Amino acid sequence: MLVNAERFLADLHTLRSFGASGVGKGVVRPAYSQPDMAARDWLAQQMLDAGLRVVVDPMGNLFGLAEGPSLLLGSHSDSQPEGGWLDGALGVIAALEVARTCRAAGGPAVSIVSFQDEEGRFGVTTGSAVWSGHLALKEADLLCDHEGISLADARRVVNVTGEVDANQFTGFIEMHIEQGPVLDAANKQIGVVSDIVGIRDVKITFEGQQNHAGTTPMHVRKDAFQAVSAFNHALEQRFSNVVTPSTVWTIGHINLHPNASSIVPGRAVFSMQWRDGDTHRLEQMERIIRTLANEVADDRGMQVTFGPLLGLEPVAMDGKLRAALEGAAEAVTLGNWRVMPSGALHDATNVSRLMPVAMVFVPSINGISHAFEEDTAEVDLVAGLKVLEAAVQSLGS
Length: 397
Ligand code: GLV
Ligand code: MN
Ligand code: MN
Prior knowledge:
globular, 12 helices, binds glyoxylic acid, binds manganese (II) ion
């Protein structure tokens, strides 16, 4: 059984053409956008051509199903608002190539999936969170994107054809780019994942008093931006004896109202996200965030409110699937691989509620991802594909 590297690379480029940004190899293909839905139609056709049965579930998760018990491979094909061409796409196209090769060669039964909204337009890995039962669809439907559009409205574009029972799958393997600097810096070709970190994500709102930027004396202002600034400044010090060098936190989105040069902003809504491999630390950080935000608001005579807290717990990869990937990595790279944790979130976290999961990484050039510059050397993309193929073979034999 032999995967076709040229066909795999050509398919990756075809998938990039849906929402290609024109800057580098970037893509703009957020969940449920026109390019995302067009890409999913194209993917569905590839699944049919590979002899798989296509099912689209109510979230818009796209499955290509083999008959009988099968291994599930895949990832997601939606992108960040400014995303790279490989994030998610690599795992979906590698899955497609391995599935059709297996089918043509009479190899192990392989099904494939492209989950919807992994990139969190509405939540955190929303499509797989709902499919796995981590998040009820009713609750998910209430979530809104930064423009105030609800998931319930956005997913009206999905042509639902059924539900997919997870019991038919024997395990899930997700191939992905690393999205960080570890493999590139160490000159390693493959990373076999040990664990995926946990995450918390919440929207915080400071409500002050909108007023005139020329006439309102500084000491009477209730400036919502100044509250965010004070909060952010104090946070690092408050975290200092709780976090480790691998803990991360990000304010990545902020909405100032009314966002005008001559108006003291009356309201600021911002995203607060933090990640760590230890659930207890994630909880300690949450307490610090809530306490500090309340203190900042009280000091300034302002109000603070918190949106729903979204999150995923850290998870360890399954020993048997991981061993298959390690054996395959050793054979394909002749020892040029390593074990590593994942600092990025993945659908595999949710799927681990339902079946054994494992992940394999290829390097990201200069460790850049969630940016148009994201890329990986072709030779590494193909090495990753071969590791996936060899692992599937060894599990099926
Ligand atoms: C997934 O894209 C993440 O934010 O880690
Ligand atoms: Mn991804
Ligand atoms: Mn991503």
